[in-house]
Specification:
The chain is an alpha/beta fold. It contains twelve helices and 16 strands. Strand 10, helix 8 and strand 11 form a beta-alpha-beta unit. Bound molecules: flavin mononucleotide. Flavin mononucleotide (FMN) binds next to strand 3, strand 11 and helix 9.
Length: 363
């Protein structure tokens, strides 16, 4: 257990929120996180309202613990990703928490959700956006640092963004997202003033994530230096900055990556997948992430992941990841940091195992 205002107010055992990751964070993943005492987020991404309703039912069949629904506010090639119907579905299903990402939600949605007793969180990438989110009534603000995987607008690292946002929006709780994949990162975010952490990349490498096995393997194999930011992906949602694994297509376009390049002529298909029940031929530069239903050339695909992929060492059940990160954070707070409050004596003792540096893969 670790206690913060967020765990108290939302009935959680640990200040851990799993990121809504489009096509990847579905009920199995979110429920495992909620069952482990955190708050699991269901990613609605481009899911139509009827399918979102089914996802919520499935979630409730897997856990009776608190959870949330993550909604992206933007237009895509598949239409508006969040509509008033999605909002109605969340209200009708009495979802405990709704999280908005990318653009701020209209005031009307905020009002309807809050009048229905639903807590609304907003994920932002800057202090000025955090202030706007606070002004429109967010109950908590997730600050996304520039390290974070997936779509990412932030220009600021999380260790600066958290305290700056806390100072700007206090007393609204702030949740830190980006670069956190072990207990050391959790402890750092909490020490910087966050009331919880929001974790994406670490959970791609979980049994329950719907990512393709090859995608999981590549997250595992990536070092911190293998991750970069690019705008090349997205005929479905053009010119959006994303943090991804640098595979061949990213390396080829480095330096020319300020915008999504024009579609090649003749059109080129890099793979096939399914979105909902629909088959989808993935065009060159597709931003659609490879899932269990995807086949094709992984050197051409968008493999969204943050810098913390470099800290991921194994694929395991999501609940185990939550428990491990939280127990390591406790060790860091209890042992490593509290030891700094007393003068050091000459010793040959080794630090407790769980907070020893891990050997990097290169050595
Ligand atoms: C594969 C992937 C997909 C993502 N999709 C979404 C999404 O659909 N909605 C959203 O709010 N955030 C999305 N994000 C961003 C996360 O909410 C969060 O900011 C990020 O994962 C935190 O950084 P980390 O990946 O370093 O843990 C995604 C992140 C990743 C890695």
């Amino acid at each position: 257990m670790l206690y913060t205002r967020l765990t108290r107010d939302y009935g959680l055992d640990v200040p851990f929120v799993s990121a809504g990751m489009g096509l990847i964070a579905l009920p199995e993943l979110a429920a495992s996180v909620s069952e482990a005492g955190g708050l699991g987020l269901l990613a609605a991404a481009v899911t139509p309202p009827s399918a979102l309703r089914e996802m919520i039912h499935k979630m409730r069949s897997l856990t009776s613990r608190p959870f949330g629904v993550d909604l992206v506010v933007t237009d895509t090639a598949f239409g508006q990703s969040t509509t008033v119907e999605h909002i109605r579905t969340c209200i009708e299903q009495r979802v405990p928490v709704v999280v908005f990402f990318w653009n701020l939600p209209p005031a009307d949605w905020m009002r309807q959700l809050r009048e229905s007793g639903i807590k609304v969180w907003i994920q932002v990438g800057s202090v000025s956006r955090a202030i706007e989110a606070a002004r429109i009534g967010a109950d908590a603000i997730i600050v996304q640092g520039s390290e974070a995987g997936g779509h990412n607008h932030s220009e600021t690292g999380l260790i600066t963004l958290i305290p700056a946002a806390v100072d700007a929006v206090s007393p609204i709780p702030v949740i830190g997202a980006g670069g956190i994949a072990d207990g050391r990162g959790v402890a750092a975010a909490l020490a910087a003033g966050a009331d919880a952490v929001c974790v994406g990349t670490r959970l791609i490498a979980s049994h329950e994530a719907r990512a393709h096995q090859e995608y999981k393997n590549r997250v595992l194999a990536a070092g911190v230096d293998d991750i970069g930011r690019t705008c090349i992906f997205g005929p479905e949602w053009p010119d959006q900055p994303m943090r991804v694994i640098r595979n061949r297509v990213v390396r080829e376009w480095v330096g020319k990556d300020g915008k999504t390049p024009p579609a090649p002529n003749p059109p080129q298909v890099i793979g096939h997948t399914s979105i909902g029940a629909q088959n989808y031929a993935m065009p060159k530069f597709s931003a659609v992430l490879p899932t269990l239903h995807t086949s094709g050339d992984f050197e051409e695909m968008c493999l969204a992941a943050g810098d913390s992929a470099g800290l991921v060492r194994d694929i395991k059940p999501a609940g185990e990841i939550v428990r491990e990160m939280m127990s390591e954070a406790r060790d860091v707070l209890e042992v490593r940091l509290s030891a700094m409050l007393t003068p050091m004596r000459q010793t040959t003792e080794r630090p407790p195992r769980s907070i020893e540096p891990r050997r990097s893969r290169g050595l």
